[in-house]
Amino acid sequence: MFPTVRASFSGLGSDQRYAVLLDIVPVDNKRYRYAYHRSSWLVAGKADPPAPARLHIHPDSPFNGEQLKKQVVSFEKVKLTNNEMDKHGHQLVLNSMHRYQPRVHLVKWREGMMSNGAFLGDLESELFRTFIFPETVFTAVTAYQNQLITKLKIDSNPFAKGFRDSSRLTEFERETMETMLVEQQYIRPPLRPFDLEMASGSLTLEEKALLQARAHILGLRSPFPSPNLIG
Amino acid sequence: MFPTVRASFSGLGSDQRYAVLLDIVPVDNKRYRYAYHRSSWLVAGKADPPAPARLHIHPDSPFNGEQLKKQVVSFEKVKLTNNEMDKHGHQLVLNSMHRYQPRVHLVKWREGMMSNGAFLGDLESELFRTFIFPETVFTAVTAYQNQLITKLKIDSNPFAKGFRDSSRLTEFERETMETMLVEQQYIRPPLRPFDLEMASGSLTLEEKALLQARAHILGLRSPFPSPNLIG
DNA sequence: TACTTTTCACCTAGGTGCGAAGAT
DNA sequence: ATCTTCGCACCTAGGTGAAAAGTA
């Protein structure tokens, strides 16, 4: 998955241990199509049957709170596919032409959380907290619908170096990109700190520590309601 | 390191958790040289100052006892070097032209065994058991001293495929190799099960479980007192 | 002479977008 | 028309031994 989801954390207990997870859930129940002549996405009916939801546990888990406060957690190894039957089952399955919301989960580490080296696959009965950054919503595609996205990705991915000479962003295109990014700040819900839940007298210390956790999104944002990659 | 050290285990508690480690220690206090015309190793004086001892923890650690009984533990990622200052410090440092004994350690898993994701670096104050397979002794070199070793390694390593056509082992060489391997069985201490230590009344359950553990070496053995690789 | 380091061609392994071909 | 799949050239990244060059 590129751009990579990267998050930093604050407000958590130094002595606690946490798993950090990522999953990707549908934004709505719609299918989209791209109207090329209008350069915009249109609703094209109801969503296809959803793919099986999978959780990606960050391979450096468990982190201790100390680490997590200093270090950026980068989900570089997340792979996306539209094929449920893909080899290893370690990839997140999406439907093309649907909109998705990545989510980051901070989970209190529990012994036996892994069984045979594989995560159990759901968060039921775990103590956790979910962070959602609306500015990371994207549309899954099998081919880019927008030339600027193609160029942006060629410019910023070392594996696409072979295509750079013919596709570097022009001065004008860079400015267009900047403008779109700025516009995005208005269209989308702004970044805001998460509300601290009402304190309840019956919380354990571990629960209180989790409630004070904060996550901050880093790195590239999806620049517009526009294709991101599958593949 | 190739051939890869591979071990299986038996006799350990299903509910226990273990780290599996590998290190490589000097066999003696000697330096060797290779007498080419005699095709044999000769003592060439006292050993050079020993390189700093490093422990390689198997990256799949911790294993639970259940896994460990079914699954072969393969140290595919162990890297050897003769340069103490090598980049990451994740490699085992050996002196060329010295003889070495790989060792496998089975360590009772303890919370906090890892500190900041890096193993503490020694086994003091850990509950552990060491397995030594004398048939895996080898001499570290920077260049192979024996043509058959070269050919064996080219034949069995996918990354050396580019050299195969010109260096496949002939029928005669294969037989020579077989013969040397068989002779090795007599020259070297035979494989034998480890003696169960005298039972003491003051052992904890965890200690008893560790004492019953067995390890079994698998995979290629060093075919003769002959170079293995550094690099 | 004997050993070590460096550079090189040749591999494995796998991440890119392109464009042709296929599917609906 | 629109979207998807597949083979491809082009990359990154790094594991091989051969041979040349370096060291002592």
Automatic annotation (TrEMBL), chains A, B:
It is found in: Nucleus. Residues 1-165 form the T-box domain. The keyword Ligase does not apply. GO terms for molecular function: DNA-binding transcription factor activity, RNA polymerase II-specific; RNA polymerase II cis-regulatory region sequence-specific DNA binding. GO terms for biological process: cell fate specification; heart development; positive regulation of DNA-templated transcription. Keywords: DNA-binding, Nucleus, Transcription, Transcription regulation. GO terms for cellular component: chromatin; nucleus. The keyword Transcription applies. Its main location: nucleus. This is T-box domain-containing protein. It comes from Allacma fusca. The chain holds residues 1 to 231 of 445 of the full protein.
